[in-house]
Predict the 3D structure of the following.
Amino acid sequence: MVGSGSVQAITGDPTPGLENLQHQDLQDSESILLALRGDGPVRSCRNLVQDGDGVNHVGQLKIGQTLLTSEAGTAAEIDMENTPHFHLVVMYGGSLVVGTATGQLHLNGGDVTLLPPGPRQAQSTQFSLASIALRPQSLAMAAAAMAGTPRNGAKPCNPEELPPLALVPEPQAQLIHRMLATIDACLGLGRSVAAHLAIDEVLQRTAATLLNPELLWHNPADLQNPRDGGGPRHFDLLIDYILANLDQPLTLRDLETRSHYSRRSLQYAFQEQLQCSPKQWIREQRMTMAMRKFQCDGQRPSVLEVAQACGYANLSHFSRDFKARFGINPSAAKRL
């Protein structure tokens, strides 16, 4: 249990780490409670600044089914009930002492930790952080896809098997900070860009590796899986599926689940059979389809219609890939 007490105010207004996310400026505990309840069952929030002039900046973003909360504020104490979610907490500055059923941890600027489901208590000085709520079932499915097991083989985390509360190792912490910087850059282009890029899946996979470090280990058996896991026919069925669904997002998780290849096995299979990565091959097929649609006889579709038919939700991304492949803009190809 995190202890309570009074903390002196720190000079200066705390700055959110995600600059492009719109934040609410909140001062009373009730407003902060209402803002944070979408992130979990918050029981209480108490301002610890002696003169009562505390402030809290709160911003939230939904990426797919994943909720990202950005906070920056003065000293406060928060008590959360039995939350069903994991929370990936990324510190930008200040100090936070957090307690869970698996231990207590002191976080400073730059630190990252994965909080398990269950009750939480936290006490902060002036702070700036981001918190990502992750469903246990989503992490289980991400781990199953990376391991190459069927989707129905995903097993939720057993609370009794959760690891002790600890800091994420520095290399992975830096990676997570860079992912949030990417999300912030996406926000500069629009709130939906991060969802279109499926960044929530990347966050889920990263958190899954924190719970299952063996997913990052190199397994020599993966080298044989593309050859022994169903033979050429097995790979051909996956190729047929991709070609029939080029208008869909086709994430790596989809391909892993569809083929039952592990993440590495999938990469090895494409490299062995097609001398490229899955993403490179799918992009090439989409560009070939796009050019074919522009050159077809009769009424020609618009650039937007072609982009959507080729699985692109973002027109600028489609135009960039098309020009990189053919050296001309889609609008020029349409006039040929």
User: Anything to note?
Assistant: Residues 1-11, 220-224 have pLDDT under 50 and may be disordered.
